[in-house]
Amino acid sequence: MSQFETRPEPIRIELMGERFSLKGTEDKEAALAAADRLNQEIESIDRRYPGLTPKQTALLAAFNLTDELLRTQKEYRELTGLLDRD
């Protein structure tokens, strides 16, 4: 990096009350949307299962979002497969 290039500002997010500063993430809007989606999932789990520890809540949120991602990817593959047949 030359002396005239500037590094992008870190993106600041908050998850479960913890603040994070993300570096190396070029798409700020996507990072903020991801943090918002994760916080929504955490809040939903907190409402449904108030007795869980923060770690259990975070792990369940990660599992739920990963499951959602995998189902969406499968659906995408199936739909693109249908388009390829036409």
Question: Could you characterize what this model shows?
Answer:
It is built from two helices and two strands. 62% of the residues lie in helices and 12% in strands. α1 crosses α2 (54-85). It has 86 residues and is mainly alpha-helical. The protein is flat and about 50 Å long. The longest helix is centred in the C-terminal third of the chain and has 32 residues, at 54-85. A hairpin with a 2-residue loop joins β1 and β2 (18-22).
Structural class: mainly alpha
The total beta strand count reads 2
What level of helicity do the residues show? Answer: 55-70%
Return the average pLDDT rounded to an integer: 91
The value of Rg in angstroms is 18 Å
Number of distinct helices: 2
In the predicted model, the low-confidence regions spanning at least 5 consecutive residues are none
Global shape: flat
The secondary-structure element order is EEHH
For the sheet with most strands, the description reads:
2 strands, antiparallel
| Range of strand content | 5-15%
Strands of the largest sheet, in order across it? Answer: 1-2
**First-last Cα distance:** 49 Å
